[in-house]
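Hey team,

Filing this mostly as a record. A colleague (T.K.) asked me to run one chain through the structure pipeline before their review meeting, and I want the input and output archived in the tracker in case anyone asks later how it was produced. No errors, nothing strange. Just documentation.

Input sequence:
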Amino acid sequence: MSLLPLARSSSAPARVLTQGRLALALVAALSIVASAGCSSQTAANPAASLAEPAASSPVASPVEPAASPAPSPAAGGDLSALTAVVTKTRAAVEAGDEAKAKTEFEQFEAAWKPVEDGIKEKNPKAYEAIEEAMDGVSGQLSGNLDKAKALAALSSLEGAIGQAK
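Output structure:
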C-alpha cells in the first residue's frame, strides 16, 4: 500500500510536466500562426497596412494614389508668413519709414524658424539663397535707408523664397 502513493506522486509531477509542455507548445504554435498571418497579409499587400483595418472592410482594397498630390507649401512648410513680412517691409521702405521697415523685418526671423530646417533639408540651394538674401535685407536696413537698394534686396529675398516653393 505504501507503493501506491509513491507511484501516484511520481506520475503526478510527470503529468503536470507533460501538461505544462503541452500548454507551452500550444501557446508557441498560436503565436507562430498569429504572426505568420499578420506578416503574410502585409507581404501579400503592402498597401494593406496603410488602408483601413480589415475589421471595417472584409476585403482589403488597394490604396489609390492621388492624381497629383497637392504640392507642399514649401519643402519646410508654409511660406506665406515669410512673404507677408517681405510685403510689409517693402511697404515701409517705399514709404521711406526706416524704423518701421526694420521693425517689420525683425518678424522675418520668427516666421523663418518653423520652416528653416525643412527647406534646408529638402532644398539646400533655396535655403542658402534665402539666408544670403536675409543678410542683404538686414544690411540695407541697418544704416541710412537707400530705397532702391533695400527694394532690390527685398526682391532678391522674394525670389529666394520662390525657389523654396
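Quick notes for T.K.: The chain has two domains: 3-52, 80-164. The radius of gyration is 34 Å.
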